Amino acid sequence: MRSLYVARPLPATEFSSGHPTQKPIKPASNEWSEVTDSYRKGGVIVADAIAVRNLTKVYGGALKNRVPAVDNISFTVAEGEIFGFIGPNGAGKTTTIKILLGLLFPTSGEAEVLGMPAGDIETKRRISYLPESPYFYEHMTGAEVIEFYCRLFRMGTAERKAKTQELLERVGLAEDGHRTLRQYSKGMLQRIGIAQALINDPDLLFLDEPTSGLDPIAHKDITELISSLGKQGKTVFLSSHQLGDVETVCDRVAIINRGKIVKIGTLDDLLRAGRTVITFAKAGSDLVEQVKPYAERVSADGELVRVYVESEENVHSVLDTARGKATLVSVLPQRQTLEDLFVEIVREVRK
Amino acid sequence: MPEGNSRPLWILVVVLIVAVAWTQYVADPIQYKMQEKARPKAGGGELMVQLPGQFIVASVAGFKEVIAGALWVRADTFFHAGQYEAIIPIVRLVTWLDPHNVDVYSTGAWHLDYNFVDTNQMSDKRYIPAAVALLKEGIQHNPDIWDLYFELGWTHYNKKILDYEKAVEYIEKACTKDGVDPNTGQRVPRPEYVDRMLAHMYEKVGRFEDAIRQWHRARKRVEETIARERKKKKGGYVDTTSLDVCDRNLGLLYLRMAWRYGDMDAYKKGLEIYKRLASRKDAPAQLVEATRGAEADYTLRVATNNPPRDALKPLDAGFEVTWKKVAPKVFIIKGKVNLVPASEYKDLASECFTHWYRDNQNAPPEQRKLWRDGCRIRWILRDYDYKMPELKTFSYKIDKSQTIAWDSVYVSGGTFSDRIDLSQDPDFYPFKADKYKLTIMFVPQQAECPDYVQDRIGWKGEALRDKRYLDTKTQPGFHLLRKEMVLTKDDVL
Amino acid sequence: MIIWSIAKTTVGDALRKKVLQIFLVVAIGLIIISLSFSQTLSFSSRAGSSTDIMLVKSFGLGLMAVAAWLISLVMGVSLIPQEIERRTIYTILAKPVKRYEFIVGKYLGAVLTLAINVAIMGVVFIAVCVFKAMGAEQPVTPEETGLPLVGMQQVGLFDWNMVWGVIMIFLQFTVLTSVVLLFSVFLTPTVNFFMGLGVYIVGVMAPLTETLSSKESQLHPVLKVFYRVIHIIVPNFDKFNVTNTLLHPETHIESMAKYTGIVTLYALFYSLLLMLLAVIIFRKKEV
After folding, report:
1. CB-count burial class (<10 Å; 0-12, 13-18, 19+) for B469
2. Cis ω for the linkage preceding B443 (within 30 of 0)
3. Which helix (H) or strand (E) holds A344?
4. Has residue A308 been placed in a domain?
5. β-strand A260-266 against A276-281: which pairing, if any?
6. B393 phi and psi, to 5 degrees?
7. Which positions ≥6 away from C25 have C-beta within 8 Å?
């Protein structure tokens, strides 16, 4: 019954029935506001691969005065999305992933993976996980490790052999399958980690810092692999603090800091939300006074007046106001890098 | 969100607890039965204190036998280094840790009996009670095997104590027990020599009827063994010399009963046995000749109705003994005893069998002996009120203030003489008492008394006579020679 | 099949652990060295070489017990924590593997590892015993009696009791492994090591706790109850300690086979119980 799942709507109790793919997903309450942010691939409404609602995790159970590792977060990841989950160390990334995998149990709130409560054993057939710098059993060869993981999916001997060969080739370890992991470099271990995560041809992959500590070539291979997964229509939940990677491969990003999601949205949304700098020449002093209400900051630099504007609406207002009163030199939207955004957000929160 | 419902698991937990309790319940009685015997009876707590710390842990952690083994190997190195004092505490610990290591008891007892020697190689007799107590403790732990009974009997018989009656008791006990193959732990019959030993002992103390019965019993065991071996080896070679040993000894016992006390029935029985032995192809010439001689003697005595009674002819021992202090704690014992002039062997019935007198007479005059030597005179020097302590539990701590020494002197040519130097070992012979007792004696049934001497004076020394020192009271039914002197401190020091 | 592959991987992993290899090699080395033990200080009516054999046996059994003890402790304490440290547990539990399958697989692997180790030592040990017994034929002479020589006493080669001894060692430390495995679900290796050690020592001293809690005991009733509880809860490792009886079979074991059977059941039930508790805890455990 669960396996019939194709593209599933959120539970029927919360939504009126209808064809899932055409259903406008609009939760009633503000609590669900994040859901509206869901990225809709190609304008087609897709079901959620991950849905997290008011999730809180406090380590140490009932003990008082514990700072929650994850503090009342809610978000969804749509099917087929490559979702970046970024934040500084200790922000709650791994905790969230572990909850989604059923390794940890939430203190409150809910977490659903592929429509089932997190940790559901059948769902695990369709997901996979690559932990941060995994080690595996050193005494085994690369092929043996993959075979071992294949066994966990109850694969038959022939299937196992074929799958192992296929995966080793895919991650570029076909030549090294007979060597023991003790002889592997960090990059090779990471590739084994990727290979084991691909055994079941998962619909949803959790990758925890998949590129940390890798040499540039391995790094590139892995980011390419993640992109290709996205092209195959897989959902990827990518936790990382390698912002460059996230920027390259992710469709949508959530920034988490101190257990809270600070920002969530498509890369375009998040980064475009930067300032626009409008530069005028020959501007009168009254103009400066007139645009001030719309501007964040106005600076005069000799002949040139720079107006720093936050929102698009204000850009128009400034331009309308200045029409005929000065010479417009340039209107430059300042697109931030993800890094700028990240640093800015983290700083803000610290304040 | 933990997986599933735990209730069935908890039910299983309860079921398993019941199962565990049940197995405990069934196993407990068997275990206690086993361990009751494995647990030492002597006070373990005090002993524990003597163990090095890590050994305590190891011994409670179930590695007692290993510790015991390690200690015992250590004892071996002490032994080779001559550090005898160090061995005894180890014996104590080892027997406590592993009360079934029979070997440690017997070796320990032997060690106590023999190895604490003075400069003259005389052993410290004060350790003997400890040796006896150790063996008794060993018997307590290992009551079902013959080994330690035999050991204890032997200690009483010949090793040290010279208590022949007690010795017989212990060997009798040993003869009711089986042995165990110490390697495989399988029950094995006790060695046949244990049974034969008992027969010898009966004979030594003059219990002929018992001795005869025991020889028959011993022979029967040998027969059974041989039959078993034959079956096993299917026609292969089976050693039957043990049968001959029994036969010769039984035959000789019969003959001696006849020679010494005139029992003609026994003479006949003994002869029958010897005739059978002599008729064999491989019979030694000496045996054939001896048998022939005895047969002739028997025929003559029957014809003349003259049963031999050699041991009933009185022999005046003429026992004389002097004691002299030559230096403090150095003494000379000197004396004469009429045991046994060659002439006394003339016309003895046993002569027909041994031909010793005839051969002596035929020898060239310069080689001819006037005496048949071989007796030993025993001397015992001890504190006046010394009594051998009887220890309830084994302890190797001896009373160092006591003095007790004994030894025996070889009689040669009717005289004996010995220099006893007790001055060099003040630890062994502290001489702290005010009065001492010196006993010098001859006991016919002691192991060192040769058979040929008994042929003349009888098993119980019936023929012994002496004007001054004949003692018939100490051991009723026995004639001993015994001189006892009381010495003052001045006499000794 | 999942349980079996986890078990197999655990065995492979454990067998390659340097520490455990050292324990094994040292134990085997010492067992072989014990061949040269001989007791010249022997003065008894028993055959001297038999005493040597007994020495080899007691040493061998003891050494195997120590080695198995260390192996089960050292292996057991890291069983679960190591999986967490290497993060392999995450990849395994992220796959469709039930948590009980993981624990049972781990446990089975640990018991198999112990079995392999004990079997290797056992084979060497029994070979050493047989070797020592070979040609150990002793003339039995009654000392000093001057009586005729009695003959030769054959020393038996193979001693079944030693096989029982090896089995008992395996059973005993299977239970200890289960104890440590249960603890390793929620304790750090170091704490677990000492806990395991403590439980073992208390369990070995079962006769003591039994005595302390008996009716004859002079202790305060509350203490008595305390010792009784200890006695009941802690596995009775003393049950497996039959070395003395095996070395000195003159104590008449009515039926070693029967006792071994019951004790096997005891070990089995106890281990299952502990494993079950480990499963129950691990199901709710956050990793």
Report:
1. buried
2. no
3. helix A338-350
4. yes
5. unpaired
6. -125, 155
7. none
Q: Provide φ and ψ at C234, rounded to 5°.
A: -70, 130
- Six token digits for residue B237: 């070679």
Neighbours of chain C (3+ CB pairs under 8 A): A, B
Cβ-defined contact of C91 to A154 (cutoff 8 Å) = no
Confidence of residue C50 (pLDDT cuts 50, 70, 90): low
Q: C237 is in which domain, residue-wise?
A: 2-283
Residue C1 with chain A: CB contacts under 8 Å: 151, 154
How far apart, in whole angstroms, are the C-alpha atoms of residue A123 and residue A136?
23
In order of start, what are the domains of chain B with their CATH numbers? 191-308 (1.25.40), 315-492 (no CATH)
**Residue A109 in contact with partner chain B when CB distance is under 8 A:** no
Q: Is C26 exposed, middle or buried (0-12, 13-18, 19+ CB in 10 A)?
A: middle
Other CB atoms closer than 10 Å to residue C134's CB: what's the count?
Answer: 10
- Strand-pair partners of A264: A254
Query: For chain B, which ranges sit under pLDDT 70?
Result: 1-4, 34-63, 158-161, 181-186
B69 touches chain C (CB under 8 A): yes
Residue among B31, B65, B180 minimizing CB distance to C239: B31
DSSP for residue B156 = I
The CATH number given to whatever domain includes residue A320 is 3.30.70.1150
Cα distance from C194 to chain B (closest Cα, Å)? 14
For residue A318, what are the domain limits? Answer: 275-334
Phi then psi for C253, rounded to 5 degrees?
A: -80, 120
Is B76 part of the contact surface with chain C (CB cutoff 8 Å)? yes
The per-residue DSSP string of B97-144 comes to H-TT-HHHHHHHHHHHHHS-B-TTS-B-GGGHHHHHHHHHHHHHH-TT
Name, in order, each residue with C-beta under 8 angstroms of B164's C-beta and a sequence gap of 6 or more: B156, B157, B201, B204, B205, B445, B446
Q: Do C86 and A129 touch (CB under 8 A)?
A: no
d(CA B274, CA B291): 6
The number of folded domains in chain A is 1
Name which of A149-158, A217-226, C74-83, C205-214 the model is least confident about: C205-214
Question: How far B25 CA sits from the closest chain C CA (Å)?
Answer: 10
Inside any domain, residue A250: no
Residue A173 has pLDDT above 50, yes or no: yes
Q: At what angle do helices C48-85 and B64-81 cross, to 10 degrees?
A: 130
Residue B389 Cα distances to B129, B171, B404, C26, C282, angstroms: 6, 22, 12, 49, 67
Flag whether residue B124 sits within 8 Å of chain C, measured between CB atoms: no
Burial B419-428 (b: 16+ CB within 10 A, else e): ebbbeebeeb
Judge residue B84's burial from the number of C-beta atoms within 10 Å of its C-beta, 0-12 exposed, 13-18 middle, 19 or more buried.
middle
Contact B357, B348 (CB under 8 A): yes
- The angle formed by the CA atoms of residues A329, A335 and A341, to the nearest 5 degrees, is 140
Q: What's the pLDDT tens digit per position in A268-287?
A: 777 766 678 888 887 777 88
Q: Among A65-79, B58-72, B175-189, C34-48, name the one with the lowest average pLDDT.
A: C34-48
The CA-CA-CA angle for residues A71, A76, A82, to 5°, reads 115
Residues of A in contact with C98 (CB under 8 A): 121
Closest-approach residue (CA) in chain B for A111: B1
Give the tens place of pLDDT for each residue, C71-112.
999 999 988 998 888 888 999 999 999 999 999 999 999 999
Judged by phi (left if over 0) then psi (alpha if -120 to 50, else beta), residue B414 lies in left
Torsion angles phi and psi, residue A124, rounded to 5: -65, -15
Total domains, chain C: 1
